[in-house]
From TrEMBL:
Pfam families in the cross-refs: Glyoxal_oxid_N (PF07250), GO-like_E_set (PF09118)
Molecular function per GO: oxidoreductase activity
Locations listed in the record: Secreted
Organism: Gossypium barbadense (Sea Island cotton)
Stored CDD domains: E_set_GO_C
Signal peptide span: 1-18
UniProt xrefs under InterPro entries: Gal_Oxase/kelch_b-propeller, Gal_Oxidase_central_sf, Glyoxal_oxidase_N, GO-like_E_set, Ig-like_fold, Ig_E-set
Name this protein carries in UniProt: Aldehyde oxidase GLOX
GO cellular component, as recorded: extracellular space
Domain Glyoxal oxidase N-terminal: start-end pairs: 46-432
Alphabetically ordered keywords of this record: Oxidoreductase, Secreted, Signal
Galactose oxidase-like Early set domain span: 441-546
Length: 548
């Protein structure tokens, strides 16, 4: 007869395996905390952008049918071309006030489904494209308490659906790709022939599947664009329409772009005064070849559990592969003020698309890029709300990460489905916000928020740090460009590490930190940034600055 200890071990093992739910939660996670901010904002946050007034603009699509939020004052949208509801008195966009934790309805006139956007140097949000009557629209939102969307008919040369945008050093936006569009264009338009062919996009198009929508676009430190689609990338001179470099395919050749949706970030840019500045891109997750077609048949293949990292500035760059603790498709990658990366949202199997994902991944994962390979990933505490297809995430000024969305259905669907349409907003607080770090946390007292700063200038940032001892080498200044987030890609996301040139104690726990701003728009296009001071990995609350 088996001993009691043996039987207990078997029961324990059975319990452990049985308790690993399909939601892919890991019970040993210890860091980070979650807060439900709003049970419902009335719409499902499919797109998300933080503005300089600490409001977040969100929107889904007009052809979902009526939302759960009425437009104010009996207002209705009349659109005879809408495929779901020609007269709609409900909102499909909201403005969320971060610090008041309140929201108000906004009005979009045409369909913004699966669109793109970026913040212009003046702080206005320019959002582009969409579906049906919205596919050539440019929409502008100015940060003010009573502002609403303004729409520019035929603001685009081509129909843009599932495209990617990036702000450029000259203040324009480039819009790359989209369904059936193997080209790019600029806004504001300044040339007659504004649609320029980009064969790379047709070369990366898998027939009948695509796997190259919402391409990952990053401004390299040399002013060229790194463009990734499917499983490979190019360095592109958009001014002269020249491919400067072709990067090797990711080992294994698995697709990482929509609908086999992985995510990507440009890792923090450092040593900004160096003659040669390095830039690295990290691509994580996605779905294996065949996954999209199999999911249409009801078979949901496991998501990819790998990340690929590459120094895009190297003369002979190679991808370095890493294994994540959790496989993930449709995840988001958010840069944190201290230089770490948060992987959040998504599924453990299937792909993007209606009803095509399974096994929600409830636990975020922290990626620490400066650690050695094998010690970079750390699983965080889980949420209880699945964030599947059409989920979003955005870094806030106080260091939290706002999370919303999830609607894998063609309409709003709240009952009788595996993953109901999600209207809630949550905030994930990384461990650096724990109260135990309060004494180490800097508080910026100068400059004041909304200060203007110029390129290649030395500035003094004054902070209060109540720690018993402040090591100069553990203090750093960082600048973050808020991103337009949708479909697992944060467009225009960028973190610059200014470091420090001198830290001076001036008494009463006050310190002066000297740091120099980036030397050109190739490193940081002009516009509004969040400036943080980080002490021993603990960031201050950010302040808004305008770089020009």
């Amino acid at each position: 007869m088996a001993s009691p200890s043996f039987i207990f071990s078997i029961i324990l093992l059975h319990f452990l395996f049985a308790s690993l739910p399909s939601h892919r939660t890991l019970t040993f996670a210890a860091d980070g905390s979650w807060q439900l901010l709003q049970k419902s904002v009335g719409i499902s946050a499919m797109h998300m952008q933080l503005l300089r007034n600490d409001r977040v603009i969100m929107f889904d699509r007009t052809d979902f049918g009526p939302s759960n939020l009425l437009l104010p004052n009996g207002k209705c949208r009349n659109d005879p071309t809408d495929t779901a509801l020609q007269v709609d008195c409900t909102a499909h966009s909201v403005e969320y006030d971060v610090f008041a934790n309140k929201f108000r309805a906004l009005t979009v006139q045409t369909d913004v489904w699966c669109s793109s956007g970026a913040i212009m140097p003046d702080g206005n949000l320019f959002q582009t494209g969409g579906f049906n009557d919205g596919e050539r629209r440019v929409r502008v939102f100015s940060p003010c308490r009573t502002c609403d969307w303004n729409e520019i008919p035929n603001g685009l040369t081509a129909k843009r659906w599932y495209a990617s945008n990036h702000i450029l050093p000259d203040g324009r936006q480039i819009i790359v790709g989209g369904r059936g569009q193997f080209n790019y264009e600029f806004i504001p338009k300044n040339i007659v022939s504004n649609k320029i062919n980009l064969p790379f996009l047709s070369e990366t198009n898998d027939k009948g599947i695509e796997n190259n929508l919402y391409p990952f676009v990053f401004l390299n430190v040399d002013g060229n664009l790194f463009i990734f689609a499917n499983n490979r990338a190019i360095l592109f001179d958009y001014l002269n329409n020249i491919v400067v470099k072709k990067y090797p395919m990711i080992p294994g050749g698995e697709p990482r772009s929509y609908p086999s949706t992985g995510s990507a970030v440009l890792l923090p840019l450092k040593n900004l005064k160096a003659a040669a500045i390095e830039a690295e891109v990290l691509v994580c997750g996605g779905a294996p070849k065949g996954s999209y077609l199999q999911s249409l048949k009801g078979t949901f293949m496991a998501a990819l559990n790998t990340c690929a990292r590459i120094k895009i500035t190297d003369p002979n760059p190679e991808w370095v592969m890493e294994t994540m603790p959790l496989a993930r498709v449709m995840g988001d990658m958010i840069l944190l003020p201290n230089g770490n990366v948060l992987l959040i949202n998504g599924a453990g199997s299937g792909t993007a698309g209606w009803e095509q994902g399974r096994d929600p991944v409830l636990s975020p994962v922290l990626y620490q890029p400066d650690n050695n390979i094998g010690s970079r990933f750390e699983v965080q505490n889980p949420t209880t709300i699945p964030r599947m297809y059409h989920s979003t995430a955005a870094l806030l000024r106080d260091g939290r990460v706002l999370v919303g969305g999830s609607n894998p259905h063609a309409f709003y669907n709240f009952t009788g489905v595996l993953f109901p349409t999600e209207l809630s907003l949550e905030a994930f607080s990384p461990a650096y916000l724990d109260a135990k770090f309060d004494k180490m946390r800097p508080t910026i007292i100068a400059p004041k928020s909304m200060s203007g700063i110029r390129y290649r200038k030395k500035y003094t940032i004054q902070v209060v740090i109540n720690s018993d001892k402040v090591d100069e080498s553990s203090v750093s200044v960082t600048m973050f460009a808020p991103a337009f987030n949708t479909h697992s890609f944060s467009m225009n996301q960028r973190l610059l590490v200014l470091g420090n040139e001198k830290v001076t104690a001036v008494g009463n726990s006050i310190y002066n930190i000297e740091a120099t701003t980036p030397k050109s728009g190739n490193l940081a296009p002009s516009g509004f940034y969040l400036l943080f001071v980080v002490h021993q990995g603990i960031p201050s609350q950010g302040i808004w600055v305008r770089l020009h």
